[in-house]
Amino acid sequence: MISVNDFKTGLTIEIDGGLWKVVDFQHVKPGKGAAFVRSKLKNLRTGAVQEKTFRAGEKVGKAHIANRKMQFLYESSGAYVFMDTENYEQIELNASQIEYELNYLKENMEVNILMYESETIGVDLPNTVILRVEETEPGIKGDTASGGSKPAKMETGLMVNVPFFVNADDMLIVNTTDGSYVSRA
């Protein structure tokens, strides 16, 4: 058990049989009344985000999530196959389990697979990934550091707003938490 006063972003907890990840939290001490913790939780099984308020000091169960380093191999009729890099065991995840992560997954990419007991919950991506620009409007001479942006379609189908100087086939570093452009690779 863990106190809600010890919440941290990314902490995984168990409430009413569900697995939840703390996305955001705020300790509130009103002038009148008892203190409480307002939190935003993401269900690891369904992906739904819910806001929940706890009384200060309330206890919740801590879920122990294991990370297994795996390599994404290929997609076959809606099933995404991952292989354990140590024992070569393979698992399949369906598209609904990793809908968001598909925007960043490339073949042969190493990721962490989140496991709760024997259940596969999802994929933990690195903070940034390198993706190739598949198509974007060509850059115009003079449009370099003006601060504007244009849409670019990446090799995975993800749309990213990029600076004007980025062209097709450029390799870019993209933030996986919000899908934003970081820099050229």
UniProtKB/TrEMBL annotation:
Residue ranges of coiled coil: none
SUPFAM superfamilies noted in UniProt: Nucleic acid-binding proteins, Translation proteins SH3-like domain
All copies of domain Elongation factor P C-terminal, residue ranges: 129-184
UniProt superkingdom: Bacteria
Chief site of localization: cytoplasm
Pfam families, per the entry: EFP, EFP_N, Elong-fact-P_C
Gene Ontology cellular component annotations, sorted alphabetically: cytosol
Keywords linked to the UniProt accession: Cytoplasm, Elongation factor, Protein biosynthesis
A GO biological-process term: peptide biosynthetic process
Molecular function terms, GO-annotated: translation elongation factor activity
Family matches, as InterPro entries: Elong-fact-P_C, NA-bd_OB-fold, Rib_uL2_dom2, Transl_elong_fac_P/YeiP, Transl_elong_KOW-like, Transl_elong_P/YeiP_cen, Transl_elong_P/YeiP_CS, Transl_elongation_fac_P
Gene3D superfamilies, A to Z: 2.30.30.30, Nucleic acid-binding proteins (2.40.50.140)
Ranges for domain Translation elongation factor P/YeiP central: 67-121
Subcellular location: Cytoplasm
The protein's annotated pathway: Protein biosynthesis; polypeptide chain elongation
Function: Involved in peptide bond synthesis. Stimulates efficient translation and peptide-bond synthesis on native or reconstituted 70S ribosomes in vitro. Probably functions indirectly by altering the affinity of the ribosome for aminoacyl-tRNA, thus increasing their reactivity as acceptors for peptidyl transferase.
Family: Belongs to the elongation factor P family.
Protein name: Elongation factor P
Source organism: Trichococcus pasteurii
Taxonomic lineage from the root: Bacteria, Bacillati, Bacillota, Bacilli, Lactobacillales
Gene: efp
